[in-house]
Structures are given as structure tokens and as C-alpha cells.
Specification:
heterodimer; A: mainly alpha; Cytochrome Bc1 Complex, Chain C; two-stranded antiparallel sheet; B: alpha+beta; Rieske Iron-sulfur Protein; six-stranded antiparallel β-sheet; four-stranded antiparallel β-sheet; 10 strands
């Protein structure tokens, strides 16, 4: 009797058909790292769940948004956990996305017959980037408001449409209440809606076309007919095929589980993203992008200045067209990494580039910043009252905004203990009064008194030689 | 004969279905698109003069920050964020009012009264007291607002710099 009721519902909801087509289908074997797709589905589910819970308390008005985030973080039961997990699984999502993309470049996941799968994936790639940007605007802290400003400045470089796009994104000619509402709408309704449709379609194609299997990486397959023949044979064979449920799901589930666990551990140890002071355009601020954009920020800093306005506009566009046209440009049967040395090099360089640039951004050696803090004298240094005075002048005139002393401080200008060559007192005074127009140093002609000049040049002169003697 | 007429019947039906579909899309789509792009279509190009304070507030020779209200005319529903600008009193009623937006990507520059330079916190932009680029990727000098003195009060025109500043 119970059995009958059970099968009644199974049949009326079409679950038997769905289970046959999705769970109990045979697939050709793949490698362990192809669990990255399942991992992203898991993370997406986490995002939807935590995001939905966040909307229950979030306020998208600029005078209450920040307070609502504070409420969620500090007062709401388990709010810190929900917000933390939303943040960390978003970051891991971006990491997994890059992994997924690079991995498909290595094993040519875009080749026949999976072009459609790839193209829907490219669409999703850019939607995730939009999500990972619009998400932290909703915090409406200083980092958020300058994220908006930076986006607007990038848009301003677009020929002809720049100003219109700024008005469009900003919702008026100043950053205003509509700005946050628009980002809210994009992050919570528009993009997730499109993303869900596209993820569904992407997964339909994954089921329909299969994923790049071990066998087609060994046996050259060029046309969709050849592919169908080999794939069909492989999935039914005992050595090359397996059942999606439970075999494939178990193996791809491992990665999902590990990554999700990592996200939970990050949430429990580091907690939700730091909240900076409430969004404002009046305080001194030292904004930074979220860590998944560090590499891009570093690129902007180190590229030739003249190319930056073009780079910020054309790089995303070029990336889009490159990814879209890839299945049309790179054809042929070679799918295995061993047959694709150029791609292995390209992907390795990309990974090294992403990590190296991110590390560079963490140090940001290009940034100078005013500070009232006196730089410490090197250890075992005999400090005379004259040097003490020189150090005060050094700070009073903002020399320490650009120059480090024995490794402590910004590195825009050279560390004064580490000049290319030793300078005499006269050299130092000359540079201070008449710096070369080629370097980013202001002239202190007419600003420093002779006495101040004497003290500061003595300070620089003594410090530049002192550590070298040791 | 009969076949032919059913064919043309189908043809007509096809066009009717497509037509009604297109009309529905249009009726819903056109207002949706216009409403979406309304900030671009309808915005104020008029000058927006806002006070910065009495001119005595700005000591001669110094670069001093000042807060300016950015509220838009009429739009009472638009809450805006006030912003800070830098005012340099050059003497004899001559002023320079800088936007704090770095001309690279809009990060807020900070004036260092020690070196008399503006520092950008993001990608190494440094500007001189005159607002010229000394270092880093900024593509031009700091934006300057138009200003006027009315009864000893300094006012700036918010619309005199690019929207992005």
C-alpha cells in the first residue's frame, strides 16, 4: 500500500523520468578534478541560501544599509556566520571559477561537441564577476563606495558612452540613494535570475553532451559523430564507464565537501569580511578591492600609465571575445594536456601571474602615504640631538611619505639607507632644493629654512652610511 | 485547393502569433527599457552652485579640505553623499578647488601638508600642489571646480567637473 502511494507521487511528479535521465545515467569516466563543477553547484546553493537569509534583514537604503549590516554581524542570531559564509564561499566561488576555466583550457573542454556548454559557461563567468563586485558594494562601507567610484572611473574611459553609462549605473549625477538600490537589484534579483537560468542550461548541456572523458583524451576525436560513437561505447563499458549515481557523484562530491568545509573553517576562524567606516566621500580613506581582484589592481599599477585607460576598457572585452571565439579557433582532436604543451605553459604562466600580482598588490610598493610617525633609527645607532632634529624635519616635510628609513616606510622613492651611490651633504641639499624633473619629488626651494636643510641633510647623510658600516 | 488554403491559413496564423508576441514584448519592453535608462535620458545639466564657507576659513597659501553638500535640485527622493574637496587659497581672492577623485580610477587623494603633494591610496598616483601628475598612472591633472565669491562666501559649481570626479 505504502509502496503504491510512493510510486504514485514518483510517477505524477515525473521523478522516475528525471532520475533515469540524471541520476541513473551512465557516463564515461573522468578525472578527479572534474569535481570542480559539482563544487561550484554546491557553493552556488550556499550563496543562494545565505544570500536569501541576508535579504531578510538587509536594508538597501543608504541611510540604513550600513546599520543593517552591523545588525546582521553583531546582533542577529548566527548572523555573523551567515554573512561570513556568504563572503567566504563567494571568494572560493571565484577561485573555483578560475580553476574550472583554466582546467578546461588544459583539457580542451570547449572542443566538439561542447561548444554550447563552453559558451554558456563564458556567460556565467562574467555574471559571477559582476556578482563578486556588486556584492561588496552592498556593505556600504568605505570599501564599497570606492568600489563604485572605481567602476564608474573605468566606465568613463569607454569612448562616446562613458558619461551616459556613469549616469546609468549611478542613477543620477552624484552617488545617491538610487546607486545602492541599483546595485542591490543587480546583485539580488537581475543577475541571480539570469545566472540560475544559465546554470540550468549549462547543466542540461553537461548532461546532454557529457563532460570531457578520459577516453577521448586518449583517442583522437574530431567530429561530433566520432565523439558520439566513442562516448556512447565508453559509458557502457565496464572499464571506461560508470554510473553517475552514486559513483561520479561520490567522487565529485569529495571536492565539494572539502571546499565547503574550507569555507566554513574560514568563516569560523576569520569571520565575515571586515567592516570599514560607513560609506562617505569626506573622510581620509585607504580603500582596497577584495582579494580576488588584487591581481587586476596590481596590473593597473604596473602597466605603462598611458595604456591604463585602454587596458581597463579593452581587457575585459578582449577576454570575452577570446573566450567566445576559442572553440572556433582551436579545433582538432588534441585534448590531453600532454598534447597541448602551449596551453600548459599558458595556464602555468597565468596561475603564476595571478599569484605573483596578488602578492605584489599586498605590498603595493608604488603607494606613498603621509604619516606623522617618526621612522625608528636603526639598531645600535648613536643618536645625537642634531639627528633627532633632522628626523623631525624629515617627517615635518613629508619626506617619509615616499622614503623608507632602513626598510621601514613606503618605497616610492629610494630608501635613504640604500641609495644607489653614497651622496655627500651637498648632493643631498641639491636634490632637496632642485630635484630632477624626471623624478616624483617636489622642490623644497623656499620652503625649508637653512637650518632645517642642514638638519635634514645631516640626518640623511649619516643614515645612508651608517648601516653599511656594519 | 483545400491544402493551399490551409497553408495560407497557417501562414496567416503564424504571422498573427508572431505579431501578437512582438506587440506584447513591445508594450512591456519599451516602458521597461525607457524606465531603466531614465537617469541617462533625464538629468540636470544645469550649473549647481554649492557653498563651501566663508573665504576667511581658507588660510592663504594653505590647502584645506572642505565639505560640500551634493544634493540635487528638486530631487527630494535622491539622498546624496556630501563630499570633501580641497581648497587652495592662492591669495588676492584667487582659489583653486580640487576634486578629491584621483584621475586614474577615482580613489580619494590625500593632501600631505609636509611635502605639499596629493597622494592617491590605490595605484601610486602622486600630484603636485598645482594638481599636476608627478607619479603613477593618473591620466591628467586633478579636476578643478569652477568657483565664485558671493558676499565673501566661496561657492563651487558641482557640474563643472566630469560626472565621474
Amino acid at each position: 500500500m505504502l509502496n503504491k502511494i510512493f510510486y504514485f507521487f514518483i510517477h505524477r511528479f515525473g521523478l522516475d523520468v528525471a532520475a533515469d535521465k540524471i541520476l541513473f545515467r551512465k557516463v564515461a569516466k573522468t578525472s578527479w578534478y572534474q569535481g570542480d563543477g559539482a563544487t561550484m553547484v554546491t557553493l552556488l546553493a550556499v550563496q543562494l541560501l545565505t544570500g536569501a537569509v541576508l535579504t531578510l534583514s538587509y536594508s538597501n537604503s543608504i541611510d540604513t544599509a550600513y546599520q543593517s549590516i552591523e545588525f546582521i554581524t553583531y546582533h542577529k542570531t548566527m548572523g555573523w556566520f551567515i554573512r561570513g559564509l556568504h563572503y567566504w564561499s563567494a571568494g572560493l566561488f571565484v577561485v573555483m571559477l578560475v580553476f574550472h576555466l583554466l582546467r578546461h583550457l588544459l583539457i580542451a573542454g570547449y572542443k566538439t561537441p561542447r561548444e554550447g556548454t563552453w559558451w554558456t559557461g563564458v556567460g556565467l563567468f562574467f555574471l559571477v564577476i559582476i556578482m563578486s563586485y556588486s556584492g561588496y558594494v552592498l556593505r556600504w562601507d568605505e570599501r564599497a563606495v570606492y568600489a563604485v567610484k572605481i567602476l564608474l572611473n573605468i566606465l568613463s574611459n569607454i569612448p562616446y558612452l562613458g558619461d551616459e553609462l556613469i549616469l546609468f549605473v549611478q542613477g543620477g549625477s552624484e552617488i545617491n540613494s538610487h546607486t545602492l538600490t541599483r546595485f542591490f537589484s543587480v546583485h539580488v534579483i537581475l543577475v541571480p535570475g539570469i545566472m540560475l537560468l544559465l546554470v540550468g542550461y549549462h547543466l542540461f548541456l553537461v548532461i546532454h553532451q557529457g563532460t570531457t572523458s578520459k577516453i577521448e583524451r586518449r583517442i583522437p576525436v574530431e567530429t561530433k559523430e566520432e565523439h558520439a560513437e566513442i562516448y556512447e561505447a565508453a559509458k557502457e563499458s565496464s572499464s571506461e564507464g560508470e554510473e553517475f549515481f552514486p559513483t561520479t557523484m561520490a567522487s565529485s562530491g569529495i571536492m565539494s565537501f572539502v571546499v565547503l568545509l574550507f569555507g566554513i573553517i574560514l568563516t569560523l576562524t576569520l569571520g565575515p569580511a571586515e567592516l570599514y567606516p560607513e560609506a562617505n566621500l569626506t573622510e581620509t580613506s585607504f580603500p582596497q578591492e577584495e582579494w580576488w581582484f588584487w591581481w587586476y589592481s596590481a596590473l593597473i599599477a604596473i602597466l605603462p600609465p598611458k595604456s591604463v585607460p585602454y587596458f581597463v576598457v579593452w581587457f575585459p572585452i578582449a577576454l570575452f571575445f577570446f573566450l567566445i571565439s576559442l572553440p572556433l579557433l582551436d579545433r582538432g582532436p588534441k585534448r590531453d594536456m600532454s598534447q597541448r604543451p602551449l596551453w600548459v605553459i599558458f595556464v602555468s604562466l597565468s596561475v603564476m601571474g595571478l599569484i605573483g600580482l596578488s602578492a605584489l598588490r599586498m605590498r603595493s610598493p608604488w603607494t606613498g602615504w603621509p604619516s606623522q610617525k617618526l621612522p625608528p633609527f636603526p639598531k645600535e645607532f648613536v643618536v645625537t640631538p642634531g639627528l633627532e632634529k633632522g628626523r623631525e624635519v624629515f617627517v615635518q616635510y613629508g619626506c617619509n611619505s615616499c622614503h623608507a628609513v632602513a626598510g621601514i616606510g613606503p618605497s616610492v622613492g629610494p630608501d635613504i639607507t640604500n641609495f644607489e651611490r653614497l651622496l655627500t651633504r651637498e648632493d643631498i641639499i641639491k636634490v632637496i632644493l632642485h630635484p630632477s624633473p624626471k623624478i616624483a619629488m617636489p622642490s623644497y626651494q623656499g620652503r625649508m629654512t637653512d637650518e632645517e636643510l642642514k638638519y635634514v641633510s645631516e640626518f640623511v647623510f649619516v643614515l645612508q652610511i651608517q648601516p653599511r658600516r656594519k | 485547393m483545400c491544402e493551399e488554403s490551409s497553408l495560407s491559413r497557417r501562414k496567416v496564423m503564424k504571422w498573427v502569433v508572431l505579431g501578437i508576441g512582438a506587440a506584447t514584448t513591445g508594450v512591456l519592453g519599451v516602458p521597461a527599457v525607457l524606465s531603466t535608462f531614465s537617469p541617462t535620458i533625464k538629468h540636470d545639466d544645469k550649473k549647481r552652485w554649492r557653498p563651501l564657507g566663508a573665504k576667511e576659513r581658507f588660510a592663504e597659501g594653505k590647502v584645506i579640505s572642505a565639505k560640500v553638500e551634493t544634493r540635487l535640485d528638486k530631487d527630494f527622493m535622491h539622498m546624496t553623499l556630501p563630499k570633501d574637496v580641497y581648497v587652495w587659497n592662492k591669495g588676492q581672492d584667487e582659489f583653486v578647488v580640487y576634486s578629491r577623485s584621483c584621475t586614474d580610477l577615482g580613489c580619494p587623494v590625500k593632501f600631505d601638508s609636509g611635502s605639499e603633494c596629493f597622494f592617491c591610496p590605490c595605484h601610486g598616483g602622486i600630484f603636485s600642489k598645482e594638481g599636476d601628475v608627478m607619479n603613477g598612472p593618473p591620466k591628467g591633472p586633478l579636476h578643478r571646480y569652477s568657483y565664485r565669491l558671493i558676499d565673501g562666501y566661496l561657492e563651487i559649481d558641482l557640474s563643472s567637473v566630469p560626472v565621474v570626479a
